[in-house]
Amino acid sequence: MDHGEYLAMFLDESRENVGRITEGLLRLEQDPTDRETVNDLFRAAHTLKGMSATMGFGRLAELTHELESALDPVRQGKTTLRPEDVDILFRATDRMEAMLRDIEGGGSGEAPIDDLVAALRSLGGGPQGSALAPPKGGETAAAGAPPSAGKTPAGALPDDYDVYHREIIRQALAEGLGVFRVEVVLRPDALLPGARAYVVYRALEALGEIVHSHPPVKELEEGQFDRSFVLTVVSAEPEAAVRRAVEGVADVETVAVTALNAASGATAHGAADQGAKEAAPGPSASTETPGATASVETYADYEPHHRSAIREALRQGRRAVRLEVVLVPGVLLKGARAYVVYQTAAGFGEVIHTAPPADRLEDGDFEDAFVLTLLTDADPETVACAVRGISEIRDVRAIELGAPPVQGAGPADGSAAGRAERSAAGQTQPPSAGQADPPAPSAPAAGRPTAGDRTAPAGRKAPAKVIRVDAERLDKLMNLFSELVIARGRLELIARELGHRDLADIVEHMSRTGSELQSLILAIRMVSVEHVFQRFPRMVRDVARELGKSVRLVIRGEETELDRTVVDEIGEPLVHLLRNAIDHGLESEAERKAAGKPPEGTIELVAYPSGNHVYIEVKDDGRGIDREKVLKKAIDRGLVRPEQAASMSDSAVFQLLFQPGFSTADVVTDLSGRGVGLDVVKSRIESLGGRVDVFSKRGAGTLFRLQLPLSLSILYAMLVDIGGETYALPIADLVETLGIPPEAVRTVHRQPVIDLRGAVVPLVDGRRFFRTDAPPFLADDGAVRRPEGEGGVLFVAVVKKNDRLAGLIVDRFLGQQEIVLKSLGAYLKAVRTFLGATILGDGRVALVVEPAAFFEPLALAEPAGSGR
After folding, report:
1. For residue range 842-862, what is the model confidence (pLDDT) as tens digits?
2. What is the DSSP annotation of 415-426?
3. Which of 168, 430, 475, 632 matches a 20 to 30 Å C-alpha distance to 548?
4. CA distance 664 to 627
5. Residue 656 DSSP class
């Protein structure tokens, strides 16, 4: 099978698992006793190892296996991680990421790992790490002994069968077939044990169907076992025929054949379940048909709390559905398919039980079938149809679980098994004689959580329905919708010009529908900032260790969503801000103690939405910005005149930090001192249509606030006419619109200004700025030209940049409109006056203005010297 079609899925899921490993190591370093984190870390590593091996990337699988082995003593509680141990493990995750990048670029994922393998094995306690730790209790199995020798009574099911295998065995026995457990030991001098095991496998396969192998088939073929192995076969042949088939294979030393009986296949949970089986009918042929019904007591794989949850759901009028899913044999990435099935089922309600357990489903550690139990309000066949729509699914059976047949409590009340069952389920008193049927559905008791109120355990996120879509398809969808927006504007214009009422009504309906579609498309393009934020804890840890500082990173609002294009661009600016906070912002531990602060510094990374923007803040509780030091550096570099320094606001001083090449660091290091970081932050954020604000208090800390647009594709703008040309001003940067008499214009230091409620606002002549053919409003001699018509008033659009205001004089306002922002292309990317262009309803092209351009020195200079 060609693995190429699965490569994108492999890369996506592998990156997620490497991220889970990194996050788990960070949490484990903080709390070495967190068992849930250890287990989650192992699940991620095991999934990554399995997928890598399946896709043929052996070096990546080997490295992940060694990482698992190195962490095994931690899982067993024998040791805890030291910071230097975590450094080695992080080096391993870094190498994994490098391998994934190589694979994405078309490589084989090969990379030198011998140094890491040696380091990881040293953590595991020996050449094989902890993989060869002796069994609990110090007992060691005799060489060549079968895995289940001496552990189980004849005919009973050993512990190496999971729920799925037990179910197959039970069904085979119910159909009158024989089920034989064949334990084989090869001779010590057997050559090619993998080949011998293969011959045994084929000999048994000729007699029936092999439903279980220990160790797994792949390990058998590769000879990865110690002389003995076990195969379980379902066959219509007698036991003697099974024995003869194996004894006829060369190099077989001993053969033990055990016929599993009906009692052994009936239960996995002891007397209580056995009593339940006696009181309830076994699975009939009808259970193999979608839409069939069965008692919850029919199945032995439910624990008492599962049965209790099912009964409670039935009493509330909900349905309990058992989904038995069989995948296509040989399907790749079984864990991924099982995950899709799980998410699909979870979309109809609450999944309360899986067989095998959920972590094994995620790892793909099962044969070709698994079971989910769902509490839902939906029809079972509807759920089954949804699951059948998933690719690589061979069969789906939906069985509706009903109330137990006897008094709603399972076994007969008088039996010991019945008492045990009720005790396990929390029912201490038998139901009254008049309560043979379950009570009518009622509202849940006050204070009792319903299924919809339940949340995932701490540290684990509730599953969400997710499908993966190629980003290029989303871009194409957005471009096509952009064309619809343009056409919609054209229709609205035609409807107004014609004055046709019916046409106007249709256009209005189309506009409402288009707005809803637009909101939906924008929502699809929105992604949370979490996948950007999640890489920073590791970075902060490494930088803090390099600088010898103790730093705590607090992240909030990672669920905040932005357009994916914006999210892709904010990573680098945030890296610079965080490194700046650690290096410049936070003091050393000695300085913090001397200042009466806790030795551990705190950095907060916070995201939150507000209106049409999202704000991201990086805040530290460090030393704050030294205003005087910044001014001294600025004066030395000629950025500020000495006489200006005293009158500059704190905000204006802090903005000097963003000047190219500006740095207050006394020593240039690998981390800082070259004056590059903050310049990159500002230029990148402003290229996205955002802005950066800085707030700082000496001795208390510093806050960098990034304001970002929700979307870069569609925005609201004010259309203005300047000299006969139409321009668009983004509403987000527009403070207000004014109509003022020419007499209100004053000249201050040869700069035309107006008084806006006590604030002095400099004016920019739109006709002069854009070099139109129309005569400018502000003459070279300082006179103000009175416009013709409109009462002779000047129309001014007041725009902002940080805490500064400027007024753009325009001919007239044309109104607000939703526009589609189009790039000016590669040849005009250096033009900073415009954000892009848009197509108007009448087909004309309008330039979208970058309001920051009005604050350039030439724009705000005197009219005669502007050159515009």
Report:
1. 778 889 888 877 876 545 544
2. SHHHHHHHHHTT
3. 632
4. 11
5. G
